């Protein structure tokens, strides 16, 4: 099986990475109700809220290496961009290719290979920012969370920087209940242990995390504490003109503020997946998230669906959901492996 799916901006339509028919568009919603990957089925959905879609996602199934004799499996990536779409788009177009190249060099998929792929993607993107930022300074403020799941040789690897989340639905043998198991750790300043980590890294900066409008933010600017991109918070050379003033810090910094390395309740998501047919399940999860957003903002769901992109961002962010079903031959013996990254760019 070849490359599967890469939805792009809703107004551009979905991009096909393989031979299957494209997904469908319903207003600001893009969805693929059900498709096949090497180990089972999948469902995808993306709802746009920003003027420009900042989320990217992909499923690649087949060779995980650039050589024919390399490992085979399924790669899933979800990239929640912020400050623009440049970083998430770059990761969507380059991370998997970097993984294939490095997996070919090592002839395997491993935590080390995944980490090297993240590092290569980060370093290449920051190099591009350096070349372009005088003419396009806004690119220095573009960053993205990067959540990846890889199924290979009976193992499930998860790797994450940012605050996206991987949740596994596990059937309890005795009770037949489906239990939610979170497989990734979030890097968000709203979490006390994450704030403590930042304070320990920056002991001489009393404003490394700031509570603003009841939300904790790094330097009062951003909630995520690890990301790919966000050059303006990693390299002091971008903390000056021509970067727009709203992104510039009033004081210089000597070390990266961000390092690359709870949008949805776990059990509720797993219960929805377990209670409805597989076909269209990603779209069902997006709809559930929109229902929550409408309830929180005290508007009707039907009215929320009519709000245009850009204005919609005041009610919810771009939302991407990928549901991957594992066949029984993998469920019995699959072992999750979690990889946490703390990567530092060269300065």
UniProtKB/TrEMBL annotation:
Single GO MF annotation: protein serine/threonine phosphatase activity
Entry keyword RNA-binding: no
Pfam families xrefs: PP2C
Keyword Magnesium (UniProt): yes
The entry's keywords: Hydrolase, Magnesium, Manganese, Metal-binding, Protein phosphatase
InterPro entries: PP2C, PP2C_BS, PPM-type-like_dom_sf, PPM-type_phosphatase-like_dom
Protein's recorded name: protein-serine/threonine phosphatase
Species of provenance: Prunus yedoensis var. nudiflora
Lineage, uppermost ranks: Eukaryota, Viridiplantae, Streptophyta, Embryophyta, Tracheophyta
């Amino acid at each position: 099986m070849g490359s599967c799916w890469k939805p792009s901006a809703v107004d551009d339509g979905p991009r096909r990475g393989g031979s299957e028919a494209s997904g469908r568009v319903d207003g600001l919603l893009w969805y693929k109700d059900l498709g096949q990957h090497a180990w089972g089925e999948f469902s995808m959905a993306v709802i746009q809220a920003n003027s420009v879609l900042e989320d990217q996602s992909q499923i690649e199934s087949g060779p995980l290496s650039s050589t024919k004799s390399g490992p085979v499996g399924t790669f899933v990536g979800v990239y929640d961009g912020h400050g623009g779409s440049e970083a998430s788009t770059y990761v969507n177009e380059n991370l998997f290719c970097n993984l294939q190249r490095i997996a070919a060099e090592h002839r395997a998929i491993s935590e080390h290979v995944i980490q090297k792929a993240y590092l290569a993607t980060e370093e290449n993107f920051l190099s591009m920012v350096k070349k372009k930022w005088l003419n396009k300074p806004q690119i220095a403020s573009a960053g993205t969370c990067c959540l990846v799941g890889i199924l290979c040789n009976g193992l499930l690897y998860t790797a994450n920087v940012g605050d996206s989340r991987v949740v596994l639905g596990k059937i309890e043998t005795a009770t037949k209940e489906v239990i939610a198991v979170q497989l990734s750790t979030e890097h968000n300043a709203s979490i006390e242990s994450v704030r403590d980590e930042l304070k320990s890294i920056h002991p001489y900066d009393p404003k490394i995390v700031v509570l603003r409008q009841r939300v904790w933010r790094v330097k009062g600017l951003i909630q995520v504490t690890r990301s790919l991109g966000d050059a303006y918070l990693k390299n002091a050379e971008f903390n000056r003109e021509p970067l727009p003033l709203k992104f510039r810090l009033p004081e210089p910094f000597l070390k990266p503020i961000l390092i690359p390395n709870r949008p949805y309740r776990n059990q509720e998501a797993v219960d929805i997946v377990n209670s409805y047919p597989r076909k269209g399940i990603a779209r069902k999860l997006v709809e559930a998230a929109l229902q929550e957003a409408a309830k929180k903002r005290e508007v009707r769901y039907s009215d929320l669906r009519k709000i245009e992109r850009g204005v919609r961002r005041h009610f919810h962010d771009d939302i991407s959901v990928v549901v991957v079903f594992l066949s029984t031959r993998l469920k019995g013996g699959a072992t999750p492996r979690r990889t946490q990254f703390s990567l530092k760019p060269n300065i």
